[in-house]
Design brief:
It is built from ten helices and no strands. The model is unreliable at about 70-75 (pLDDT under 50). It is mostly helical and about 170 residues long.
Length: about 170
Amino acid sequence: MGMHIQHCPAEALAFIRADYLRPEAPSFAACYRRLQRTARRQRWALPCERSLRRHIATLPAPVAAPHRQGAALMAAPGTRRLADLADLVAASFGVDPAEMRGQRRRHALAPARQAFFLLATRLTGNTYATIGACLDRHAESAAEGTERARQREAADPAYAAALAAVAAAWRAAQ
């Protein structure tokens, strides 16, 4: 019987995660073989390949995809533009760009994230999946955030003015 994933050394988990998430996008089997060689040298006990494969599969797609697609994804004009728009929205709403991309769900971050989703939809023509990935979110989160921003824009003139100002600054910078 194989060992449980929670008994796997943290170094081994970090090793396979880092290897698998490389921009070269190696196969999981190749990563596991490299991990086995390193584990023998380091004397790490490993769970079976299937257990580690399941562990890697739990990584959220918006987190894993940019790493595995790497430079090609960030070199795409739309993706680079999205990152720039996210920075502009964060500055306009007075939040830290890294925090806006983070996993925290602070109430103060919601208007900025939602504004980004709405403006990215309007200004870049990217899909919800691509827009969501820019903030490490799923397409469903981007779609929901876009709708909430539309509702807020209709109900709050100050929010609508902030969106208009960011959109104008974005267009001027292009």
